[in-house]
């Protein structure tokens, strides 16, 4: 294709992309109007049946236009998720008047470019007010910043699909009066980053956070004679490589984060599990009210009495109240050998009857129960449609 003809086609594509963005913005505005109606009439945020019907209709229309069903499904999963999260944020803001701040000071691990930094950007992009990032070098420093009003919020990684729970964060939660007010799941795409264009065979020193090395252990085993140096955050690892400017030194981090430090990505998808995600929690000094229309999670910590079957008895309380437990984690109680605190994530709102009944029952049979937070669930399960429905006329 001649250069002039190619330029014309690209210009048309650019105009179409701009029009798509305008239409998406218009669609988001309309979904916010839908949220206003849901607020007035106490209607749940998600209408799964409506979502399924919409997706089937769009798949059929897409096929008539020459688009395959997978493409249409993936595209509208993202659009529907955005709509749900925006509506949830809107309802949460209305339920907590006065909580919106002109400036959100948020403490997180590392500096610009760290995974916690990227998660912070993602979460607060849906919240009103300007964002001020407060980078910290440890989880204890993060908690301290919020407890002592040097920050309004903290974003903390709590678990990863490859390396599991982050125990140090659970231990911090055991001793703080801060409340969990939100959550988000962020994809972790580990990439080998270098300051100068080089080959993997030349790498002799590799910097990363200990959790990152755990998540990429298979890749490290393949590297061979490479010195592994742990560092306090992913952003510190990237900064170190940027400062050294050597072709035999690399860091593991995100490609987006590496670009902030002028680093090049020479290999991607380093994690043992290719679907690698981290779950983050957001904490603040005061709890939030979650509207009953919004899917909620409640996190609590408890200590059971020292008798056989005590934990099972406590978990039966959740079953009897038809509450789904999504996470159970145990951590030792400092100063009490062989005794443990149990952290539980469960679906449900503390304002709802079943959760209230369960908490009352747990307080009656355990030594200690504390609600660490009730917060909107941001794990949006994709809308599913049966293939037969999508393809039938």
Keywords:
393 residues; alpha/beta; Chorismate Mutase Domain, subunit A; D-Maltodextrin-Binding Protein, domain 2; 4 domains; six-stranded mixed beta sheet; 13 helices; 26% strand
Structure description:
- This protein has 393 residues and is an alpha/beta fold.
- It folds into 4 domains: 3-96, Chorismate Mutase Domain, subunit A (Up-down Bundle), CATH 1.20.59.10; 103-188 and 277-284, 3-Layer(aba) Sandwich (D-Maltodextrin-Binding Protein, domain 2); 191-267, Periplasmic binding protein-like II (D-Maltodextrin-Binding Protein, domain 2, 3-Layer(aba) Sandwich), CATH 3.40.190.10; 296-376, 2-Layer Sandwich (Alpha-Beta Plaits).
- The protein has helices at residues 3-41, 48-64, 69-95, 115-124, 139-147, 167-175, 210-215, 217-223, 234-244, 255-259, 310-320, 353-365, 387-391; strands spanning 103-109, 130-136, 153-160, 164-165, 179-187, 191-194, 205-208, 227-230, 249-253, 264-267, 277-284, 296-304, 325-333, 336-347, 366-376.
- The strands form 3 sheets. Strands 1, 2, 3, 4, 5 and 11 form a 6-stranded mixed sheet that branches. A 5-stranded mixed sheet has the order 8-7-9-6-10. A 4-stranded antiparallel sheet has the order 13-14-12-15, sandwiched between helices.
- It is globular and about 80 Å long.
- The two termini are 39 Å apart.
Summarize the structure.
The protein has helices spanning 3-41, 48-64, 69-95, 115-124, 139-147, 167-175, 210-215, 217-223, 234-244, 255-259, 310-320, 353-365, 387-391; strands spanning 103-109, 130-136, 153-160, 164-165, 179-187, 191-194, 205-208, 227-230, 249-253, 264-267, 277-284, 296-304, 325-333, 336-347, 366-376. By secondary structure, the chain is α/β, with parallel strands linked by helices. The protein is globular and about 80 Å long.
């Amino acid at each position: 294709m001649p250069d002039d003809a190619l330029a014309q086609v690209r210009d048309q594509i650019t105009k179409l992309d701009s029009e798509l963005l305008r239409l998406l913005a218009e669609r988001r505005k309309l979904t916010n109007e839908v949220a206003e109606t849901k607020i007035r009439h106490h209607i749940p945020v998600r209408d799964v049946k409506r979502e399924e019907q919409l997706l089937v209709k769009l798949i059929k229309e897409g096929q008539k236009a020459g688009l395959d069903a997978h493409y249409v499904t993936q595209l509208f999963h993202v659009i529907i998720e955005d709509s749900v999260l925006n509506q949830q944020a809107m309802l949460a803001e209305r339920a907590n008047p006065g909580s919106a701040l002109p400036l959100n000071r948020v403490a997180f691990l590392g500096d610009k470019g760290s995974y916690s930094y990227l998660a912070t950007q993602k979460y607060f992009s849906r919240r009103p007010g300007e964002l001020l990032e407060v980078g910290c070098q440890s989880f204890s420093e993060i908690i301290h910043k919020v407890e002592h009003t040097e920050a309004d919020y903290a974003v903390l990684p709590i678990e990863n699909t490859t390396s599991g729970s982050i125990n140090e964060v659970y231990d911090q939660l055991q001793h703080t009066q801060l409340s969990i007010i939100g959550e988000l799941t962020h994809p972790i795409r580990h990439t080998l980053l270098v300051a100068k264009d080089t080959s993997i065979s030349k790498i002799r020193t590799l910097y990363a956070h200990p959790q990152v090395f755990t998540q990429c252990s298979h890749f490290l085993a393949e590297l061979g004679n490479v010195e592994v140096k742990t560092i306090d955050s992913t952003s510190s690892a990237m900064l170190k490589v940027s400062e050294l400017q050597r072709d035999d030194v690399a860091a593991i981090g995100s490609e987006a984060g590496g670009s902030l430090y002028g680093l090049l990505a020479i290999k991607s998808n380093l994690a043992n599990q290719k679907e690698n995600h981290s779950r983050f929690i957001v904490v603040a000094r005061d709890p939030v009210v979650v509207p009953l229309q919004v899917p909620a999670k409640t996190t609590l910590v408890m200590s059971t009495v020292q008798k056989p079957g005590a934990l099972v008895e406590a978990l039966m309380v959740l079953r009897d109240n038809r509450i789904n437990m999504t996470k159970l984690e145990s951590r030792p109680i400092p100063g009490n050998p062989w005794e443990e605190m149990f952290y539980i994530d469960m679906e449900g709102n503390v304002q709802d009857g079943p959760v209230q009944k369960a908490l009352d029952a747990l307080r009656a049979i355990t030594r200690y129960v504390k609600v660490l937070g009730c917060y909107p669930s941001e794990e949006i399960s994709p809308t599913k449609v049966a293939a037969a429905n999508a393809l039938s006329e």
